[in-house]
Automatic annotation (TrEMBL):
Enzyme Commission number(s) from the entry: 6.5.1.1
Entries under NCBIfam families matching the protein: LigD_PE_dom (TIGR02777), ligD_pol (TIGR02778), NHEJ_ligase_lig (TIGR02779), NHEJ_ligase_prk (TIGR02776)
Name by which UniProt lists this protein: DNA ligase (ATP)
Spans annotated as Disordered: 1-28
Length: 813
């Protein structure tokens, strides 16, 4: 981390006196700078941007374009990226006191692996600047004595078109490329001593209470509203842009900074160098409410860019927008009116609030918010958040904060369509919402299509046509299987439950990046696919809008190439629904009468030496035949038949309690991934097919079931301890309210978990889908990964778990 590498730099400077940058900017590319610096004498400093810092060498005589000139270069401490643009006078008495100009700057590129070449002491690189260009070489000199501390190098120009033998670029071009000034111009100028502003005095605000920094705090949440509220003298409102990122509480205590998620998880280490930026704030302790975002080229926060940044080991371009100040220097400010808290926050962030700072103040407008709302809509922003200017901070969802989306957008199931002779295609989409096991009609969507979209939709919908139409829909509706979801913009929902002024904005479709490019052994042949057969193929399951029995058979045949490597040779339990009614479904763990002859029976003894007989899918024929027996779900053991007494996978089922949203489950899973990786394990993830997430860890087959269950229990407790306000390991609904239950009990002998790619017995048949970790963070609705969408996604993307068997590790004691 760059913060560790900047310890020497920061330790030598008093930033209350010098205007040199503390160092908060993330790495932005491959820039370089050559400073001319007059301290005890003139010298030059070469600095190259590398791995989040500026690698620096002091060159007493400066660089030369003559290859015959080999100049001494002394390695110095790493400098922060911000230093590239620094020009000014360092105060007398400070480290390096004296004037400094940006003599040259530009971009650079290594001719090999930069860090490896530096370590070897033979470092070639190219410069493209205003004064320097072409190839250059730094070569390390041998130390004259064992105790010599100075790291000496030689800097010289390589023979190429940019060389100029006999020239003196230092005399020819003495000026700064930034300001045009010479070093002599700054010698007569007094140093601008930077002094920290006086410490803020929160105790003078009405409502402030002397109190220690709270150990934990839930953030205030906003209530949805249709339009911005009207402001008046008695009910004043202020309005902020709604940001698209991760809600975060920044907790500053002495020299420690923690960045806490909405769910109470400590994600500090996930945010790279961003926590370092808070160290420069003029306070002892603080609690700031805000949002971590990444901005696009227009300065708009984009969640997709944030996900992309966080997928790298050293995330760049992260920005923390602070919008509320809850505690400062021993004073609890939650009872102070919001407008006063924000004023104090703006002054706290003022010293770090330049346009390039990673700490930004989330400004607002007061009064009526219609103009800001219209502007947000025109820019394509999510909307605005309106807040009572005189409100106290409430650690819950409160109507004193309102979120107004611009305009309302919802996701609705396409249950049918009408045709238009005039338009030559679709007249309108018939949309609906699931309510328990039935679809409820929500009206028609007849605008928002261009000719290309209309043709594509028509092709897809014609392939999904069924005889029935949804109750309440127009008589000319052509019914379709409810597998596609439309994103619809609308102004309101009427008292009859119908969308008003609905506009089609696109299909909400799941996507998966290509993850499995290696050739796969084909497990299901064309003959297998052509031979799919079931009795009562049109029988509907789970209500009149549910899939057919044939749909189930076709799905399992289509995903078999991906599912079977995770299922074959493992004991299984089947969830069968032979009549299609939920009340008639049951688990089948043991051999049954009439079962496919290719389904394998296994006789094994448990820990008490009691013999039990289970079943296993060991070939393709058994797998494909089970659809005929009403099999909807497959649940497998975490082991294989050849080592049935030693597990090779353990699973942590993240089961959300009441009040936990999908986004919180995803955040929790990502947090636990980092914890598991920190102890040397390689976690994989899949949706559960319901509301939760399964984290699956491949392990070496070195321990038995009792040991694995005990170890997974201890590990679950250790994981829960990293977020005690988020996780619980005790069973029971009462223990899980606003908590996520880490269920490790599936790691006992004969316990099962729903298999990878298995469907779940629900109306729209969602699947328990393995996904890449980055994809998990982009999923809005896991039910989009279902019997209809998943086969085509897998065909184009592959299996994110293709390497799971090569990722086995020993389970820590």
């Amino acid at each position: 981390m760059a913060a560790e590498r900047l310890k020497d730099y920061r330790g030598k400077r008093d930033f209350s006196r010098t205007s040199e940058p503390f160092g908060t900017r993330a790495s932005g590319g491959s820039r370089y700078v050559v400073h001319k610096h007059h301290a005890t004498a003139d010298h030059y400093d070469l600095r190259l941007e590398l791995d989040g810092v500026l690698k620096s060498w002091a060159v007493p005589k400066g660089p030369s374009l003559d290859p015959a000139d080999k100049r001494l270069a002394v390695a110095t401490e790493d400098h922060p990226i911000d230093y590239i643009d620094f020009e000014g006078v360092i105060p007398e008495g400070e480290y390096g006191g004296g004037p400094m100009i940006v003599w040259d700057t530009g971009t650079w590129a290594p001719m090999g692996d930069a860090q490896t070449d530096i370590d070897k002491g033979a470092f070639k690189f190219r410069l493209a600047g205003d004064k320097l260009s072409g190839g250059w070489m730094l070569t390390r000199l041998k130390k004259r004595a064992k105790d010599e501390r100075q790291d000496n190098w030689l800097l010289f120009k390589e023979h190429d078109q940019a060389m100029r033998p006999g020239s003196d670029i230092l005399s020819e071009r003495p000026e700064s490329v930034k300001s045009g000034k010479r070093i002599e111009d700054l010698l007569a100028q007094p140093a601008q001593t930077v002094r920290k502003p006086r410490r803020l005095q929160p105790g003078k605000l009405a409502g402030a209470v002397k109190a220690p920094l709270p150990d934990k705090l839930s953030p205030q949440l906003a209530v949805a509203a249709a339009e911005p509220p009207q402001s008046s003298a008695t009910t004043p409102w202020l309005h902020e842009i709604k940001l698209d990122g991760y809600r975060t509480l920044a907790r500053i205590e002495s020299d420690t900074v923690k960045l806490i998620t909405r769910g109470g998880l400590d994600w500090t280490r996930r945010y790279g160098d961003l926590p370092d930026a808070f160290a420069a704030l003029n306070c002892r302790d603080a609690l700031i409410d805000g949002e971590i975002v990444v901005l696009d080229s227009k300065g708009i926060s984009r969640f997709g860019l944030l996900q992309e940044a966080l997928s790298t080991p050293r995330p760049r371009n992260l920005v923390f927008y602070g919008f509320d100040l809850l505690h400062l220097d021993g004073w609890d400010l939650r009872a102070v009116p919001l407008i006063k808290r924000k004023d104090l926050l703006s002054r706290l962030l003022a010293t770090k609030n330049s346009s390039t700072s990673p700490l930004q103040y989330s400004d607002h407008v007061e009064g009526d918010g219609e103009e800001l709302f219209d502007r947000a809509a025109a820019l394509g922003l999510e909307g605005i958040v309106s807040k009572r200017a005189d409100s106290k901070y409430s650690a819950r969802r409160s109507a004193s904060w309102l979120k107004i989306k611009a305009p309302q957008t919802g996701d609705f199931v396409i249950a049918g369509y009408t045709v238009s002779a005039a338009a030559g295609g679709i007249g309108a989409l018939v949309v609906a919402e699931w309510h328990e096991d039935e679809l409820i009609y929500r009206g028609k969507v007849g605008t928002g299509f261009d000719s290309s979209t209309m043709k594509d939709l028509l092709d897809r919908l014609e392939a999904l046509e069924i005889e029935d139409r949804i109750e309440g829909s127009p008589k000319d509706t052509i019914g379709v299987r409810p597998t596609l979801t439309a994103r619809v913009q609308y102004t309101a929902i009427t008292s009859e439950g119908l969308l008003r002024h609905a506009v089609f904005k696109g299909l909400r479709e799941a996507s998966m990046p290509v993850t499995d490019t290696a050739p796969r052994q084909r497990l299901i042949s064309d003959a297998d696919l052509a031979g799919i057969w079931v009795t009562n193929p049109t029988r509907r399951l789970f209500g009149r809008n549910g899939p057919t029995k044939l749909d189930i058979a076709v799905y399992y045949a289509a995903v078999g190439e991906f599912m079977l490597p995770h299922l074959l040779g493992r004991p299984v339990s089947l969830f069968r629904c032979p009549t299609g009614k939920t009340a008639d479904c049951f688990f089948q763990r043991h051999p049954f009468t009439g079962m496919p002859t290719s389904l394998t029976s296994i006789e094994t003894a448990n820990s008490d030496n009691e013999k039990q007989t289970y079943i296993a899918v060991t070939d393709t024929n058994a797998y494909l035949a089970l659809a005929q027996f009403g099999t909807i779900e497959f649940h497998s053991w975490g082991t294989r038949l050849e080592h049935i007494d030693t597990p090779d996978r353990i699973i942590f089922d993240l089961d959300p309690g009441e009040g936990i949203a999908w986004r919180e489950i995803v955040d929790a899973a990502v947090h636990l991934r980092a914890e598991l990786q920190a102890i040397g394990l390689v976690p994989f993830v899949k949706t559960s097919g319901g509301k939760g997430v399964h984290i699956v860890v491949p392990i070496r087959t070195t321990i038995g079931w009792k040991q694995a269950h005990a170890a997974s229990a201890r590990l679950a407790e250790a994981l829960a301890a990293t977020g005690p306000d988020t996780f619980v390991t005790t069973m029971g609904a009462s223990n899980r309210k606003r908590r996520i239950f880490i269920d490790y009990h599936r790691n006992a002998r004969s316990a099962t978990a729903v298999a990878a790619y298995s469907l779940r017995a629900r109306p729209h048949l969602p699947a328990s889908t393995p996904v890449d970790w980055q994809v998990l963070e982009s999923i809005d609705s896991p039910e989009d990964l279902n019997y209809s969408s998943l086969p085509s996604l897998l065909t184009s993307a592959g299996d994110p778990w293709a390497d799971i068997n090569q990722s086995e590790r020993d389970l820590p004691a």
